[in-house]
Amino acid sequence: MSEIIIIGGGLTGLSAAFELEKLGIAYTLIEVKGRLGSSIVSEKRNGFVLDGGPFVLTRTREWPLLAELGLEDALYQVARLPNGNELVAFKNGTQTLVDALANRLTSGRIITRMSVSTLGKVEDRFAVCLENGMVMNTDGLIVAAPARYAERMFYTFQPEISQRLLKHHYDSITRVTLGYRKEQIAVPFSAPEDPSCAFGSWTDSEYRVPPGHILIQVGVRLPLERTTPEIIVRELQRIMEWPSDPVVQRVDYWSESHSLMPHDPKHDADMTVIEALLPEGVALVGSDYRADRFEDRMTQGQDTARKIAASLKS
């Protein structure tokens, strides 16, 4: 029976696995971390719903995947932008989507805490070499791993792809999430006009905060090797004139949070070259490549799964 291996259990990889599940095609999903979802993680604490990763999301079109997962009512609108797009958030945290996808993956094999060292080809099948020395053969391969990992995988398999992936650089983002009593904070607020501040979002929705409270998330470009979470929070509170006693606080550091390459004017042309170098039956997908927006990762994962599945049939 034909099988497809997916490397990377973030949103793109999970969406691809879900599509293969629906198509009835055998698959194995390999994730280096101990959990699925990458930076998408949510928790409920003191009546707040906190996200360690993406919180307020831009929606430019309908997301049919939500209906497929029974999540039609999972979102609420944070704001509508002048261009007609929406800012939305998940009522129970962005991890709602990850959990719904993971719960639907019942027929495939999920391997976590395992990295892929290299890729290759044995006769007419692809070989996936794991860090423990095990080699898995597959008919189709979806690489949904960040460029910093994918570069090593392609090093001996397709060296030119590896060389191009070496160009990728990243922002280091510390997401500071603070919950306050509403009278303590003046809203709307603007993120500090400082290159070190990447973004700022807030909500007072009943879905995310207790009555009379507000939830704030700010992204700061300060590598933790040079500071500490406590210093970042104190400095942010000082600059914004926020109280030093939030009701709830969460700090998440992502050393390579966001690829800067999609903002490079040469990126699309570079991706066209990389995609032309990929063997038939192999795809390279995810936020580092052509799926910069959250919604694009869902669509790209599903579209790629259908494309690879069709190539196996042909």
Structure description:
The protein is of the alpha/beta class and 314 residues long. The chain has two domains: 3-168 and 264-313, FAD/NAD(P)-binding domain (3-Layer(bba) Sandwich), CATH 3.50.50; 170-259, Polyamine Oxidase, Chain A, domain 2, CATH 3.90.660. Helices cover 27% and strands 31% of the residues. The protein is built from eight helices and 17 strands. The chain has helices spanning 11-23, 64-68, 95-104, 147-153, 159-165, 229-240, 267-277, 294-313, and strands spanning 3-7, 26-30, 42-45, 48-51, 57-59, 75-80, 86-90, 109-111, 116-122, 125-130, 135-138, 140-143, 170-181, 197-203, 213-220, 248-259, 282-284. Strand 9 and strand 10 form a beta hairpin. Helix 4 (147-153) runs antiparallel to helix 5 (159-165). It is globular.
Which terms would index this structure?
Polyamine Oxidase, Chain A, domain 2; 2 domains; FAD/NAD(P)-binding domain
Question: What is the gist of this entry?
Answer:
The chain has 314 residues and is an alpha/beta fold.
Residues in β-strands, percent: 25-35%
Please name the CATH architecture of the largest domain: 3-Layer(bba) Sandwich
| Total domain modules | 2
Radius of gyration: 21 Å
What is the overall number of helices? 8
Top-tier CATH class of the largest domain: Alpha Beta
CATH topology tier name of the largest domain: FAD/NAD(P)-binding domain
Helix content: 25-40%
State mean pLDDT (0 to 100 scale). Answer: 93
- Contiguous runs where pLDDT drops below 50 for at least 5 residues: none
> Going across the major beta sheet, what is the strand order?
8-2-1-12-17
Oligomeric form? single chain
In this structure, how is the largest beta sheet organized? 5 strands, parallel
Distance between the termini: 14 Å
Shape: globular
Order of helices and strands: EHEEEEHEEHEEEEEHHEEEHEHEH
Class derived from helix and strand content: alpha/beta
Give the CATH superfamily of the largest domain.
FAD/NAD(P)-binding domain
